[in-house]
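ARCHIVE CARD
CATEGORY: sequence design from structure
SOURCE FIELD: tokenized fold
FIELD CONTENT:
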């Protein structure tokens, strides 16, 4: 069974967070397996026969992710005009002057700033773990330093150049999980969404749509339609992006925004 990222492993873990592997959660276990800090055998509930070639777990793409993160982190930490960027990108300066606060998904991220005004580290104030992809996304947000005002005109990912391969990824990891979640949780949906920065929720007889801020300048429009069982039409959904979203993040990070939103909704 080939696994390219820790998320592939996470999907087949029981997600009971029983801690028998010595880690605080299944997510942490999956992350540590991929970073080589622990091994698959430590989880007694994992079917080891699924992994005849253990080396495939250290998927190239994940190692590349870590390598990318190292480079991005260095670039991020050497930003000279960080405070100015942070304000333009929707961060709140801390009264102490030693950090800024950034809303991200349903979290608040504190970015520490040293005496030279350079960012040093990202701390999730909720205490939950930021995984390497969160860090890549956040570093990119400041490195891209988008300037073009948001249009609030939303388009599908396929409208962006060179997006063909990412459209499928978005469907598998973002749109399909969201549709499944919305279909299963319709009655309590509004309360699930409350944790997030959601606005403009609109409902009609066919479904609903809303806007959600992943980051202050990265807003997704999520559209869900209920389908019609009598006509054999399944429920469906789509994630749309501001027409100028590529000024703020690259395609991969934009797809990850939807994927991570779906993951956070399940928590
Ligand atoms: S032992 Fe397995 S199920 Fe339990 S927390 Fe670790 S990974 Fe999750």
């Amino acid at each position: 069974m080939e696994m390219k990222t820790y998320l592939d492993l996470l999907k087949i873990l029981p997600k009971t967070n029983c801690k028998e592997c010595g880690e605080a959660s299944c997510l942490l276990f999956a992350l540590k397996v991929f970073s080589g800090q622990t091994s698959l055998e430590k989880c007694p509930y994992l079917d080891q026969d699924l992994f005849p070639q253990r080396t495939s777990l250290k998927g190239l793409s994940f190692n590349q992710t870590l390598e990318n993160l190292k480079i991005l982190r260095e670039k991020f930490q050497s930003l000279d005009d960080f405070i100015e960027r942070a304000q333009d990108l929707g961060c709140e300066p801390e009264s102490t002057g030693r950090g800024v606060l950034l809303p991200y998904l349903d979290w608040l991220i504190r970015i520490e700033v040293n005496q030279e005004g350079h960012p040093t580290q990202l701390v999730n104030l909720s205490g939950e773990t930021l995984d390497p992809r969160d860090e890549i996304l956040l570093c990119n947000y400041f490195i891209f330093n988008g300037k073009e005002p948001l249009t609030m005109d939303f388009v599908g990912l396929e409208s962006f150049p060179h997006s063909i391969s990412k459209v499928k990824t978005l469907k598998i990891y973002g749109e399909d999980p969201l549709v499944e979640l919305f279909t299963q949780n319709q009655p309590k949906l509004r309360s699930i969404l409350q944790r997030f920065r959601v606005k403009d929720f609109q409902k009609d007889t066919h479904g609903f749509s809303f806007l959600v801020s992943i980051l202050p300048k990265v807003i997704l429009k999520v559209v869900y339609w209920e389908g019609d069982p009598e006509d054999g039409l399944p429920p469906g959904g789509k994630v749309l992006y501001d027409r100028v979203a590529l000024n703020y993040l690259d395609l991969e990070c934009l797809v990850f925004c939807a994927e991570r939103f779906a993951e956070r909704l399940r928590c």
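CARD ANNOTATION: The longest strand covers residues 207-215. Strands lie at 92-93, 99-104, 107-113, 119-124, 154-156, 198-204, 207-215, 218-225, 236-242.
SHELF: design records, drawer C
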